[in-house]
Amino acid sequence: MSTKKIALVTGGSRGLGKDMAINLAKKGLDVVITYNANKEAALSTIESIEEVGGKAIAIQLDARNNKAFADFKKELSKQLETNFKTSTIDYLINNAGFGHHGTVADTTEEAFDDLMNVHFKGVYFLTQTLLDILNNGGGIVNISSGLARFSLPGYSAYASMKGAIEVYTRYLAKELGERKIRANTVAPGAINTDFNKERFEKAPQVVDIIASLTALGRVGESEDIGSIVAFLCTDDAAWINGQRIEASGGMFV
Fold first, then answer.
1. How far is residue 126's CA from residue 87's CA, in Å, rounded to a whole number?
2. Domains in the chain and their CATH numbers?
């Protein structure tokens, strides 16, 4: 039986999720990552985790499809027993998602529903599905966005979902407190990952504009976020609960 604690990172195959997974491994945790379609990226992340001395497995999951969560849980339980000789996890990091840029006037109902399904409904019901295999004394980290605090045109739908996640996280902290399970939100600012790659490439001047709005004078990188999430999954963060931690380098302070 594994004596290490285990963290599950949704969307852990690339971008912020990949850096979270690697940093969790550096903290001595075993890691389960999910990927939607890019299995090669997931396997690459596992290699990176093994390079720092960690152990990880990857399981396919479409975080938008809550009807698949029960089957995912069965597969997760099977893989936990096979690879780690346990049936439970200690930390759940709800990271999976994608961006969307569109004004209130332009956002379609289809785009809205897609964002809702992965960023709020999916997080809500995946967490619900996994509650009974989440160990007492563990933790949940939900990924929000700086856009839930400050407003930039074109992100109303995405930011609204993230605002909902922040409220949801406080309720998780309240309701799971009797199990000593902590729930916190990490809210990245603008990060230079494949999440924003298309927009940054189309309008490279956006990077300079964002940097000018940040007290530290640069755009964030993946490694600016992963270490914070990993910290929250350690005993050093045992007294942090129900909190929103923004990691934006001081945007609009």
1. 17
2. 6-191+222-247 (3.40.50.720)
